[in-house]
Amino acid sequence: MAYQAFYRVYRPQSFGEMSGQHHVKQTLQNALHHNKTSHAYLFSGPRGTGKTSAAKVFAKALNCENGPAKEPCNECPTCKSITEGSNTDVIEFDAASNSRVEEIRDIIEKVRFAPSNARFKVYIIDEVHMLSNSAFNALLKTLEEPPPHAVFILATTEPHKLPLTIISRCQRFDFKPITSAEIVDRMRQVLDDASIEADELALKVIAQAASGGMRDALSMLDQVASFSGERLTAESALLVTGSVGEDIFYQLAEALLSKEAATALTLLDRLIAEGKDVSRLAEDLITFFRDLLLLRTAPNLEDLLELISNDERFVSMAHAFEAEMLYAFIDILSKTQQEMRFSNHAKVYIESALLKMIHLDNSGGQSQGGSATIDPQLNQKVESLERLVAELQQQLAEGVRPTEGSVALAQPKKNASKSSQSFRIPTGKINEVLKGATRKDIQVIREEWAGMMHTMQRSHSALLEETEPVAASDNAFVLKFKYEIHCLMASENTSLRSGLSAALLAKTGKAYDVVYVPEDGWLKVREEFIRNNGLSKQSDDSEHPTEDDQSAQDEMPSFMQEAVEQNTDPLVAEAEKMFGKEFITVHDD
């Protein structure tokens, strides 16, 4: 008979043989014992934690000729056929290679037929998250109301990819990573059955490398057994799994303790030259310093040690490091591990991490000359500020208002902040434009304004969306902004100014100088200009022009016309629209 790997030969055939997952086993066994099994189950969890094995054991216990029982007998023809995979009523379906809706429809069509030689038809769908959306939709109705003889068991490593409508119709069981102690116990049973001797440290190395997966542990155990021969040694396990031995860790920790950078970097370079993965090395270093921290803070919990043994040399080394320093080491290595994922120079990161750890002092902070050194003068300033705050709080608690001096300390900063965020209105430039402003010039700009906006950058045109040209002379014009913040942003944007001038030059043939002003500022400057230049009487006379004055009104600058319209009584303006200006006479009472 052909050789079979350990993880296939020693696959659990009963709930008692399963490692870990006590909550899953107890719930399923109680349901079998009280005949309260459901029609759909969802087994989710990391790889190699027993999801498919639990599904097969549950199918055997459900269909066992001596059951349903807490444990399958594994002796009756039904149990043996399910173990061998020849029972036609227990269907294993791999969704990773059969994800199309046609395969699911085939299941739906056959599920209504009664089982041929078992009590229930059990469908075990592995990697169910790989099904397509149409396949999930086809499975949904059958999963909701299956025939009484059908049971569905869905297994997945990524339950978040399943539709909520599927999850809500299943009893969900979350399989947890198997502990190192449970993995070691199972490996001892396998090795005893295979008559292979092994060092305890070798089993610990394999269990730590398996990261909670029993299948991974048995696969590595099979590989180490093939490499070692008659006895599994720690050296063989370290070599096959790519882990680092505790002796190297001890030497590296001594170099960090004595702050010998050359020794630490040489050891690191040797490990990388031997083919050790840098990311795995960072993870092992984190676990090593975690073990030292455990030896220092809780020496009685030696069973929780993962990389090192409870040797006297490691106990003394753990007490040589301060707890804060070990915390700092773990923090540095954790950040380094995250940064290495996005870089092609992982070796540089791990070397930098070792140098940072060497430059730490024994309390976990930066050593002298490092960036964490505190200036004594800064300490004095902080203390004086703390005293001042305490005095102010005491005065407020006693109902005493702060002194003028304390208010004056904060007031200039507030005023400075306000003035720095306000826009200074260029009154002189606006007056120069108004002196030479004509109706013809502003009409030219307004006619080309919409087309010019389409030629500018989208960010610039968005900033100028709430603007309006209000007055223009032969070489400049005033641009009014609805909001002051937009006016401030535009005035500080040099690329917008140059882009606006270039767009106007392309449309009008003139390179206008643009003067920015917010709406409130524009109204004040315009009113002041009209008053200072004696134009207010002219504007009052133009409210009701005679036929002889119509041509003069047509030549009036647009900003004057707008001022007149804004000062006109809305009732008078409405009457003029309805009956005409020549028929309206306004009398002031």
Question: How many distinct helices?
Answer: 29
What's the end-to-end separation, in Å?
121 Å
CATH superfamily descriptor of the largest domain: P-loop containing nucleotide triphosphate hydrolases
CATH architecture of the largest domain: 3-Layer(aba) Sandwich
Query: Could you give the order of strands across the largest sheet?
Result: 2-3-4-1-5
Note the overall shape.
extended
Class of the largest domain in CATH?
Alpha Beta
How many structurally independent domains?
Answer: 5
- Helix/strand-derived category reads alpha/beta
Residues in helix, %: 55-70%
Number of strands: 10
Q: Mind telling me the C-alpha Rg? A: 42 Å
Poorly predicted runs of 5 or more residues: 368-373, 404-420
Overview of the molecule:
- By secondary structure, this protein is α/β, with parallel strands linked by helices.
- It folds into five domains: 6-174, 3-Layer(aba) Sandwich (Rossmann fold); 244-368, Zinc Finger, Delta Prime, domain 3, CATH 1.20.272; 378-420, no CATH class; 427-530, 2-Layer Sandwich (GMP Synthetase, Chain A, domain 3), CATH 3.30.300; 534-583, no CATH class.
- 57% of the residues lie in helices and 8% in strands.
- The protein has 29 helices and ten strands.
- Strands 2-3-4-1-5 form a five-stranded parallel beta sheet, covered by helices on one side. A three-stranded mixed beta sheet has the order 8-9-10, with helices on both faces. Strands 6-7 form a two-stranded parallel ribbon.
- Strand 8 and strand 9 form a beta hairpin.
- The model is unreliable at 368-373 and 404-420 (pLDDT under 50).
